Amino acid sequence: MAPQVQQPKVADEMAQIPYEPFLPVEGKLIAWSLVLGAVLLVLLVWVSYTFFTG
Amino acid sequence: MEKTKFIRNNEDWWALWIGLFVFVVSLGTFAGMDLLGWGVATRVWTDITKSMAAVSKAYAGLPGFLALVFTYIFMLVIMSVGAKALKFNLKEFAIGFTVIFWVSYGCWLIGNWAYIAATPNQLKAFNLRWALGLTGEAGFIVALLVGLILGNFFPGVTTFLKEATRPEWYIKTAIVILGASLGVQAAGATGLAKAVMFRGFAAIVEAYLIYWALVYLVSRKVFKFSREWSAPLASGISICGVSAAIATGAAIKSRPVVPIMVSSLVVIFAVVELLLLPFLAETFLYHQPLVAGAWMGLAVKTDGAAVASGAITDALIRAKALAATGVNYKEGWVLMTATTVKIFIDIFIGIWAFILALVWVYAIEGKSGQRVSVGEIWERLPKFVIGYALTFLAMLWLALQAPGLIGAARLSTGESNVFRVLFFVMTFFTIGLVSNFRKLWEEGIGKLALVYVVCLFGFIIWIGLVISWIFFHGIMPPTA
User: Fold this and answer.
1) What is the pTM of this model?
2) Neighboring chain B residues of A8 at a CB cutoff of 8 Å
């Protein structure tokens, strides 16, 4: 008989999540993503309504 | 050699091969050969004996039930070839597929009952005083509900059907076939098709950049999840569910258990969205059908649920617009918009995973000795996307180059559509089967589910709606 593989439990996994301080590089990743999103929004809206009017 | 092994053992590739096979066989109409005309077409019915018939007039003498049996045998054979190559247990797959096919078709038939499906303009033809007016696509909802009941209350049935319960494989095969129909449609309105494609691309660029960053921020700052959990959670909740969570998990080298646990929630909440959002769109967006289509693609997670919700929304909105305003929109444009958005999301998963791998290796973990290969973008590209692009562009090119052949093109896609629709119904049924809501009661899931609920219903759905509105309002589908 094959050995039973123990499935990890959600509760155990949640309990084991370590505290990790929020690094400046994570803040930068989020800020860059949102700023790029805002800049591209203006650009993409302009391109859409100028060249792809349907 | 490793590559060959990879190709043979991937559902993505087999969705591509099977979808392309159906597409190529359907092209027989261009040479005057009606090779798939025996496929079953289901009509809205009050007399069940008249509910099914062969899809092509060339097979008008074929009894409807026999057309259904031929359709079943054909689908069983082509899927079994894939199942064999994928090293599934062929016997279990064939039995499971058979049950799933017939139950799904039964649901589709119920959905096409005139009291459920007939729209107001059809009432007279069916001699009815009332009907729910949900169109035949109500069969999708019936299939989903039956799947949910079996999946949640009869776990033995789910286990019995496990080998053939493959919603992602069915929907990916359907999407490859769908490309051809949308190509023919696009040929009739190339300007509109280009607009849908560019704006769909623009919408997902925005969604990636805004969604991911916000979910990651909430997960890290508010819920105090670690980076290993936050990144797959952000991708799973915000982008494309299961595949994005897995790709992100691999990119940041998280333990396999993380994306697996995230994915189990993705599927459950995708079903909730699938049951809610199309009806919300029908109520509030029937005057902006393509906004609704893009919204389904942006907000509903997983390929299956997103494209499926696009199909339901397409039917619901056309029926509502016809009843409320008298405008009869052409079928398929809402679905096309939802599918286009979803396909772009899928294409970008690889690129996003690559970017995250770069950030994690060089900025967060600071492992200067490690290298991230650009080849990972190709590795993570869902291959069925290639099939969708091929069938779409091939049919668009054919229809534009030889307008005289548009009749043959319509016949071809009409016949392949028989199989596309049945793969859709089977997707709905099997999504229901795999959506185990009891998971929500599992000890410890609360925090994970809470971050999902807060992000999904708190802002993702609504930001998706705003982005869809910005890029698609005022863009109208052609009228029939």
Assistant:
1) 0.83
2) 257
